[in-house]
Amino acid sequence: MTFYGDVRPEAVQADDSLVAATDPIHREALDDAALMREVAHGSVEAFTMLVDRHSPALYRVAMRMLSDTAEAEDVVQDCFARLWQNAPRWSPSGAGLVGWLHRVTMNLCFDRKRRFRVVTVETVPDTADEAPLADRRIEADQASEAVAAALADLPERYRAALVLCYYEGFSNALAAQVLDLNIKAMESLLFRARRQMRTLLEARDVSCADLEAQG
Fold it and tell me: Does the keyword Cytoplasm belong to this entry (predicted)?
């Protein structure tokens, strides 16, 4: 993923940083808090490590929230731009950096959903292979498309709850911190989200077993 503008200013260097002094083999072991301390002092290398470490998960979340590749990439880029800008003021607390990044990503997705109407186009294979294996593959693809369409039809808070807890494997407690909810409210939101998702899937003739296959 490419970053532009002042997100990674190459002019800023930190030659005496912890990252620069650490053996390359052990750099991956540096925790987020240690890397953030380096980013706060202008370390581009530490920032790059955080981008490499966390951008895949943030991109998955943004894609499931927005169903648009370009929008998802923009969200992740904006998220890391905010990380760079806020690094001097960041402190390790609550859900930590993972929670902070996911909260920013979710809020950026909510903002985009309010500004743009995302249209999901379902595709159907042009021709169907008569072979049983090909039939099963087509059925799996159609089920996957139906699940994605149902997820896109959920209210944004319901979708966020399922994306975090089901697809990303967050605990209810961590998801609650990301969405700025108490644990009871999070559990209630997740219950309602699952119930509505089940209703949407049943309307598309997709079973809950098909939903589990998408995890």
Answer: no
Shared domain for 157 and 174, answered yes or no, is yes
Chain centre to alpha carbon of residue 166:
12
| Tens of pLDDT, residues 85-131 | 999 998 877 778 999 999 999 999 999 877 755 444 444 445 455 55
Quote the tokens at residue 35.
């890397």
Show the CA angle centred on residue 147, arms to residues 203 and 198, nearest 5°: 50
Burial bucket for residue 176 (CB in 10 Å: 0-12, 13-18, 19+) = buried
176 and 148 co-located in one domain? yes
Contact in structure between 61 and 170 (CB atoms under 8 Å):
no
- For the chain, the domain total comes to 2
Other CB atoms within 10 Å distance of the CB of residue 191: 11
Q: What's the pTM?
A: 0.70
pLDDT in tens, 50-61: 999 999 999 999
**Which of the 8 DSSP states describes residue 28?**
G
CA 154 from centroid of its chain's CA atoms: 17
